[in-house]
Amino acid sequence: MAYRYMFIDAVTAPQEVPIVIPIFVLIVSTVLFITPILSDPKPQFLIGLVFILSAFLIYIPFVYLKKRLSIVDDFTKFIQYLMVVVPPEKDEGEAEENHTVEGDEGETEAPMIAAVV
Length: 117
Description:
Helix content: 55-70%
Largest sheet: 2 strands, antiparallel
Radius of gyration: 24 Å
Number of helices: 5
Strand order of the largest sheet: 1-2
Structural class: mainly alpha
Oligomer: single chain
Number of strands: 2
Distance between the termini: 37 Å
Strand content: 5-15%
């Protein structure tokens, strides 16, 4: 944690990796995946290949093409409100409702979060 505050520029700067390292990792992982399939083919290896290829079915529409499902956003908001891990949404015209909470450190302002039941 101290490193983050002492060297804030180093933490926020993009991390650069020589291109040789990702290429080497790709080659090694491909060899480690293909070698067992070629030497002793088993149905388990086919299942692994299906999982890898199914990742492309998720990646292409939702990451590369940036498509969004509204039900996923609704589910995310529901879980965030249920677990009380997100502040309430602020509208431009509305003022944030704050309530005074008394604790050991004195009075503090806490945003009001509607409970989802």
